[in-house]
């Protein structure tokens, strides 16, 4: 069910986070500790912002643990903002185009989870993608479809709002009639400056999500990368916002409809992480 | 722009047609003679009917010319009906799911050509796929979408009619407003018993298509596999029907609308191949 | 550290043994129960005897669990003698040429284990390959080198003897000076008629090996494929010989030098499996 | 028979040389103009010097023309010294380990050509690799074997001399008895500072080699990357030395034995390229 890591901070080589830690993402590809699928061997991906205006991508279908290229690239690529992802395929093919992260213009997205019964909902989720972004659909995953739907829902202007609107639509779909299908949406999103990490679920428990700050740097990951202290959990149904300014906020994230019901309940609980650092 | 071969006849090992001839499909993958793209190195596929109720498939993304597995399989697999295809990708990804042939239930399809401007038409062609067959869409090619649309248009009961109906819809799409986008549809279709080979184009010249009979066997191919005699061309806008009974007919194939205009013109020209063998 | 299965008996489709059982080889590729490496995701291979004079091979670098081709082939390929292997690479590259089984002429071999410290011994093990068989070295594994050394040591005339001679040489190498390096050699060998399955170790415990007979059929596997009865263990330092005649014998297997010491000890313990069936 | 490009100069993104030119290396992978093999689709590789002490490598078995990762990496990777290579396999497998460039410590090497009859000579060329460097043999190509033999022949202290010594040995092998087997050795070698490009052949014509200087930059390539002026040919049996100092010299390169015969002949012909720039 995938494992991922997102980094925002001073420009760093990827290896420090992706390949070197005791329980690095590569180690997690072979044996993760907190995932439903212990083995995440159905491809992987790197995404980053660098010297070219558009983000870079390296996606491969072989398991991350045996990819020599990945080791070389993690030593030589560096960025102030990068994503890395190892995949455990749910029901779509093992192709590069189905590996995360996904890129659309300046935006990059990766996901750990699933969207109800994909065979039942696929067509309707794809219909949520606006014509403008449909040519960007290169693969067949639910994750990419949701990302492109978010793009069309106004992601560029209002990332959290667009994500909330799409999740709200999805919640309607999985809850229609007598269906109570699960949605798990533990995902990362960035424009190269701000980092958004969502931990949300509907009709199910949410996939794990942790973060750690060190100096200027922020690391968000499916599982802690080592046994050292400093890892904190992002609460279920919250979004961590690591702004370009350096502030880190953790605020409730609920689809719009549910939110109206829970607004007061949640508003009192806004968590501010990295005290003395958040705004 | 792809090259392919289809065989129907006595049970034979594939090698006799796929790997051994002077200008075999493997040789064509490295250098075809009659295709727009000389190199067909973007993956390949084998499809066949054998001991299992469902057809078999072997599809790979690497070039056919360097695949050791292909050579072994062509020596050991045998069938009374098999397809082989080498791909030159037009605008979709090089994945196994985008390699031909495509299978849906008992039916198998492969294609050489393209459908207008895929970015413009993709959504509308995909909408031609009925809900019943949408879960069978594993890749992202125009070819697979057209095949699944054909499935929903009644392929099982009326293969040629269903194909004609879908082509008719496509012709409307590529000819709407001021568009005069090209369609090239040189394809093979089978249910394991009957073999249908279409050579059709709209707003463009049709891709090449040849056939040869020998004893009970029928070989249909994008290009002759050798310099020996016996290769005949399938005329543009015709379909070759190699029935399970052994008969081989070549009849006009035009989308229904156009057909009404040209009915008389074409009806006089029905070509009957394999004289003495056709009905 | 690899898992494998070998079948000899009536001609059968591979699926019955490779993909369908509860704890099939495919299931073992994702999670084996008795191996040092739980995940065997570094490629796989099928080898079989069929309609062509030379054995067939299908080897792939991706994990067996996600290979659609494998599923199709296991449904459509059938043989009276086939091998299947999932790999957990020890220290050599994940390439098709390093995947098992290996074929040389009429002989086929696959292995689960390792040969001492490969970097130290590689050159000397490779020098054990005779010039005649050196061009057959397509990969870089210890397993292939040992197999080709066995070929040169007279495998065709005396399979068990040739294997014993090569193991004897290897034991000298790993025991020279102060080295006491481990050798694990749990392997299968066939000429298409007779099946030999070795379970041997030096300076280490031997990797697991089981067999089951049913009617005419013999299945030898690293781990039982299901929880049903009938699975028996091949004892350490023994070789199971499933002859073309149908007889199944399990006899001690010790390198020649050690054997001289243990000859009397072992000769009394010859195990005859499948009582009433063995000679 | 492979095409390659080597760059030394100001730090630049690879795309300017690898993917963007009219007749870029990617274009050459699909259709080269001056090579025996027109299609170079048997894998490719990038090698470069960057932020990590050891050089970086990206090697893939699929054709360069369809690799999305390559396009992204060429936009985001930059270096003062990089190699890029597209392969047309001669007789060894299409694996990443057989793709060029090869790296050993600080040194990087790539090759276009072949070494006599590889099956006949393989064992003897491999025996030229010293024990120190034998563990670095990851693949099975003649090119990698020659490179590692060069490493053992003193490459670090005397790159051109070591190369000459190894070529001299090879010439003896291909000329022994009545053999007059061809050697083609058009190759690039670097330690990250100095660039050496050899164009040599024995019993055959040499593969093409060109270079162009622009400002501080030096590009050496199998074929000109565009139709602009400035491309000059490296003469047969010469080595171009692009030193870290910026000087560019083209001097005769002949194996030591032959050299003694031709010393006077060649010494008068030392070509100094980039007049006013060479030392």
Protein model, in words:
4 copies of one chain form a homotetramer. Chain A contains 7 helices and 14 strands. The first copy, chain A, has 279 residues and is an alpha+beta fold. Chain A has a single domain (3-275), classed as Glutamine Phosphoribosylpyrophosphate, subunit 1, domain 1. In chain A, the strands form 2 sheets. Chain A has a 7-stranded antiparallel β-sheet. In chain A, strands 5-6-7-8-12-13-14 form a 7-stranded antiparallel β-sheet. Chain A is globular and about 50 Å long. The two termini of chain A are 34 Å apart. Mean pLDDT of chain A is 90; it is low at 261-279. Chains in contact: A-B, A-C, A-D, B-C, B-D, C-D.
What secondary-structure arrangement, pairings included, does this model have?
The structure is a homotetramer of 279-residue chains.
Chain A (H helix, E strand, L loop, with lengths): L2 E11 L1 H4 L6 H6 L13 E5 L7 E5 L7 H9 L1 E9 L15 E3 L2 E9 L2 H9 L15 H11 L6 H17 L7 E8 L4 E8 L7 E5 L2 E5 L10 E2 L4 E5 L5 E5 L3 H12 L3 E2 L7
Antiparallel strand pairs in A: 1-4, 1-10, 2-3, 2-4, 5-6, 6-7, 7-8, 8-12, 9-10, 9-11, 12-13, 13-14
């Amino acid at each position: 069910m995938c494992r991922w890591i997102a980094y925002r901070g001073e420009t760093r080589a990827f290896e420090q986070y992706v390949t070197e830690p005791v329980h690095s993402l590569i180690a997690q590809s072979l044996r993760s500790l907190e995932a439903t699928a212990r083995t995440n061997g159905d491809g992987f991906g790197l995404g980053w912002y660098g010297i070219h205006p558009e983000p870079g991508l390296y996606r491969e279908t072989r398991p991350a643990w045996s990819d020599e290229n990945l080791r070389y690239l993690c030593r030589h690529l560096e960025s102030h903002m990068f994503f890395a992802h190892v995949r455990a395929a749910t029901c779509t093919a093992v192709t590069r185009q189905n590996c995360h992260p996904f890129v659309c213009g300046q935006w990059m997205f990766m996901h750990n989870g699933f969207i109800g019964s994909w065979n039942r909902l696929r067509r309707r989720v794809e219909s949520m993608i606006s014509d403008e972004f449909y040519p960007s659909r290169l693969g067949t995953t639910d994750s990419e479809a949701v990302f492109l739907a978010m793009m069309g829902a106004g992601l560029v202007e209002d990332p959290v709002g667009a994500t909330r609107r799409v999740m709200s639509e999805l919640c309607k779909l999985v809850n229609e009639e007598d269906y109570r299908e699960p949605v798990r949406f533990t995902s990362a999103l960035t424009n190269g400056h701000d980092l958004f990490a969502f931990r949300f679920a509907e009709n199910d428990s949410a996939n794990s999500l942790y973060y750690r700050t060190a100096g200027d740097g922020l690391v968000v990951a499916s599982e802690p990368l080592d046994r050292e202290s400093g890892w904190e959990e992002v609460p279920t149904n919250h979004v961590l916002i690591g702004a370009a300014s350096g502030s880190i906020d953790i605020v409730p994230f609920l689809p719009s409809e549910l939110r109206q019901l829970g607004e007061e309940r949640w508003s009192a609980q806004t968590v501010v992480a990295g005290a003395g650092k958040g705004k």
